[in-house]
């Protein structure tokens, strides 16, 4: 059986169907539910750009959410997820359908009521997740084009985090904690060096990128080779920056509840020393 049997059409873009491999599924696709009746057969080959929710819990959540959402928005989100899927080589966690639908629907309601929520991680998100940010920008532009509502830059950042969450199979709360941690680490560096970073500067971008990759290595448990001679030299030559790097890695350990390889201290020291040097040069 290489076809779907329609159990129920929920609207023009969503049906509940029987799938040859996955059993009962929620199928999302442009126009897939149009004029469909129970027991209709849809050849799989005839369905273009469809998404299938296989997980039972995800199915139930999506079915509960659907009646609260405008059908035009369902179509837009379907288009956005297709756009994302075509530009990434990793499979998206199917929770993105619920997460984006729920988030964007709520954002539109807030906009209608004049409630503005500022994104505290906007600059960090743009620098740390540039691809996801571009995809979020596409989503916001598409909503403006199709619905005439501009959700603004703050929402681009929020949507980007949801996209990153789906691409890495991380819970959105984990992604937010990760972003908050990077913001806090930058704050510690800024306070220690008594230096205010320009958010558009290359120095700021480099620091965020370094911290992002350090946290990713810690999260994945990647072993970082320790360079004993270099480590000793850095400790001797740049004691203040070495101490600051050590402090930052201890904050990472505590917040992530994961061990940080000692080698990270050395690599971070080099980066901090370059920042400190730049600060001193600016003073002259």
TrEMBL record:
Keyword Repeat found: yes
Matching PROSITE patterns: PRD_1 (PS00654), PRD_2 (PS51372)
GO biological process, one term: positive regulation of DNA-templated transcription
Alphabetized InterPro entries for the sequence: BglG_antiterminators, CAT_RNA-bd_dom, CAT_RNA-bd_dom_sf, PRD, PRD_sf, Transcrpt_antitermin_CS
Keyword annotations from UniProtKB, A to Z: Repeat
Ranges for domain PRD: 68-173, 174-282
An MF annotation (GO) of this entry: RNA binding
Family: Belongs to the transcriptional antiterminator BglG family. GlcT subfamily.
PANTHER family: CRYPTIC BETA-GLUCOSIDE BGL OPERON ANTITERMINATOR, PROTEIN GLCT
Name of the protein this chain belongs to: PRD domain-containing protein
Lineage: Bacteria, Bacillati, Bacillota, Bacilli, Bacillales
